[in-house]
Amino acid sequence: MALLPILTYPDPRLHTVAKPVQAVDARIRALIADMLETMYDANGIGLAATQVDVHERLIVIDVSEERNQPLVLVNPEITWASAEKQVGDEGCLSVPGIYDGVERSRAVRVRAIDGEGQSREVEAEGLLAVCIQHEMDHLLGKVFVEYLSPLKRNRIKTKMLKARRDTERV
Ligand code: NI
Fold first, then answer.
1. Could you read off the pLDDT of 104-120 as tens digits, one per residue?
2. CA-CA-CA-CA torsion sign (117, 121, 123, 129)
3. What is the DSSP string of 116-132?
4. Which residues are Fe cation-binding (predicted)?
5. Ligand 1 centroid, distance to 117 Cα (angstroms)
6. Residue 170's pLDDT is what?
7. CA 61, CA 128: separation in Å to the nearest integer?
8. How crowded is the C-beta side of 100, counted as CA atoms within 13 Å?
């Protein structure tokens, strides 16, 4: 297993639209293991393949307190979303240090292939529902800051670019 570098906003590669995974083979299983290790190491609750510069439809999630309930969703598709919405604060491993409110469906149902190649359907509400919607956006090339006002987004972009320059200097 290996830790994978995480792309940070506004890296243009974060706006790539992912293609479906063709098969859950050895390569994909290795990628799943690496993505889980990377997510846990970064203390994240979700990670999309897009964020590690692999543009295939695969996300990993763990919203459990104990960090021992990994959820692997390959080729996820939302089959139902509640009309009821709620606004919650979101953050993202690709936008470190930034948290802001985003409106999402309160509950969703998602069909996907799991890490063993089995088809399954997951019903989610609350934090898990938010996380699934956030990670699936990544697969469409969308970062959560794009829901914020242009003014906020530009401030975040400036801050991220400055942070990157500061890192490169040391
Ligand atoms: Ni994210």
1. 999 999 999 999 999 99
2. positive
3. TS-EEEEEEEHHHHHHH
4. 92, 134, 138
5. 24
6. 63
7. 8
8. 14
